[in-house]
Amino acid sequence: MKRAFMFAIHARSIRFVALASLFTVHCSLFTVPAQDDEPIPPPPIIVTKEERQKLDAQTDTKERVKLSIDLMDARLTVAEKFSTAQDFELMFRELGGFHGLLDNAMERLERQSGSDRKVLDNYKRYSLGIRGFATRLEVIRRDIPLQYEDYVRKLLIHIRDLQTKAAEPFFKNTVVPNQKP
């Protein structure tokens, strides 16, 4: 009797192992292989020759800031179209051009001298102009693969930093900077 009991337990364990292996094989047939989620290197941050010529043709800083914002808007619109078409390589390239225009406009504003009203107006125009881009980039970031998400997230942080930088001249004379003794 003891021997029959041991045989029954052994038969149950064999059935359990067979069912478990069958379940494992069945589940592995329907699983999606893991994607390579390693971030793609950032695109080149450039301003094209045509864009630079258009910007250099504007001698008035106010008009140059407006043109920069228009060019950034056009780049972001194209990137949104590529994102919806799921052509992420071209979207990425457009975002690199957008980033280049962002930095170019801020560098030009920083080269202005003085704290007169015109300079402050240009900083304000720039800050207000790039404000809406963050929302549009969030929509792009939400719908792209993880490999591209890292750069778009960093670009969003960069836009926030540029907005802060554009607001600093308004408080230049009233805020005491932190200095080490």
List keywords for this structure.
75% helix; mainly alpha; 181 residues
Structural features, described:
75% of the residues lie in helices and 0% in strands. Helix 2 runs antiparallel to helix 3, helix 3 (61-84) runs parallel beside helix 5 (117-143) and helix 4 runs parallel beside helix 6 (146-167). The chain has 181 residues and is mostly helical. The chain has helices at residues 2-30, 49-57, 61-84, 88-111, 117-143, 146-167. The model is unreliable at 28-34 (pLDDT under 50).
Summarize the structure.
It is built from 6 helices and no strands.
The residue ranges in which pLDDT falls below 50 over 5 or more consecutive positions are 28-34
Give the strand content: under 5%
**Mean pLDDT level:** 82
Q: How many extended strands?
A: 0
H and E order: HHHHHH
Radius of gyration: 28 Å
H/I helix tally = 6
Measured between the Cα atoms of the first and last residue, the distance is 90 Å
Q: How would you characterize the largest beta sheet?
A: none
- Please give the share of residues in helix: over 70%
Structural class: mainly alpha
- Oligomerization status of the protein chains: single chain
* Shape label: elongated
Architecture blueprint of SSEs:
Layout: H1 2-30, H2 49-57, H3 61-84, H4 88-111, H5 117-143, H6 146-167
Helix pairs in contact: 2-3, 3-4, 3-5, 4-5, 4-6, 5-6
